[in-house]
Amino acid sequence: MDPIRNPYAPGAGQRPPELAGRDEQLAAFDVVLERVARGRPERSLVLTGLRGVGKTVLLNALRSSAVRRGWGTGKLEARPDQRLRRPLSSALHQAVRELGHPQEDAVDHVLGVVRSFAQREAGPGAKLRDQWSPGIDAPAVRGRADSGDVEIDLVELFTDLGGLAADVGKGVAVFIDEMQDLGPDDVSALCAACHELSQSGLPVIVVGAGLPHLPAVLSASKSYSERLFRYARIDRLGREAADRALAAPAAEEDASYTDDALAAMYAATGGYPYFIQAYGKVVWDLAPRAPITAEDVAVASPEAEAELAVGFFGSRFERATPGERDYLRAMADTAVAIADAGGEPLDDVASVPTAEVAAALGKKPQSLSPARDSLLKKGLIYSGERGRIAFTVPHFGRYLRTQG
Asked: For this UniProt entry, which segments traverse the membrane (predicted)?
């Protein structure tokens, strides 16, 4: 098969040629946009799921929907070592520009509030070189969004931003990827701002994406967060959608798969979108001709697995210390032991009890807390419920068991 015509696109956040299985989320978001623009009450949205299920791709697709409706949009990626003020200010600067408000004075006022919000990061009396603004020419508006209390400031900022959007009958959507990495103060402020927006009816919404434990992070910050956000769990694709993700791009290049080949691809990928693209690319390159057969999939699978072992799994495993790697391997072994004891198929993404992981290592759970906490911060594992942990990456346990 001609590699130049290979339609598949494995990559972090890279949109696949066929965004299969996400029609429901896209349609629901269109309703949210229309309701908010009309002044109807609507909750902000949070997407959750494992790595490789396409959260970032879907987040970008939702943003595109908002842009097509003339909304102001901005996007940021949260990082554990960065506060919210500066990246959010950059995102909101872009959102204000996209709104296209005709009154320059009104725009300058809101941009001045954004600048004031950003500069407060440096603290009062900071030297000029320590101050920062996201390319905003308007002067900072003193006394607005600059109290130093990020919760108060964010409420004021979103209120002014919502008023600007309402003037032109549009809305503003802020997209936050890796939302679970926000600091506790910033999470609390974001929840408080969304709460205020829901009461005032201003056309501003937050769309976040993060790992499965993100709802717990939000709930720990504000007890009412369960009512602030509409949660959508993004999971692996069903068989029909997975087949479409492979077959539709191939058809555009006058190629096809046999039914057996599609079945083999689903068995190999588990329906995870990233794996579908990764396997699809390798199978296409190695298949001699169309239609692609199950035999072609079998021949290509070792190379696809080798590429994933280096780029998808290995890069994450290398971030762990030797002690953390022992903990990860013990998690994988514990999952096997639990499946064998219950006589059930092994599920690599199922959570395991931390006490049993400690037992597998022959140590007390308390002594393993530093390793576990470090892995949580690195985003390699997550805790969906007290006393249990799971991998954030599907098939990670399988990878670890092949490493010996």
From this structure: none
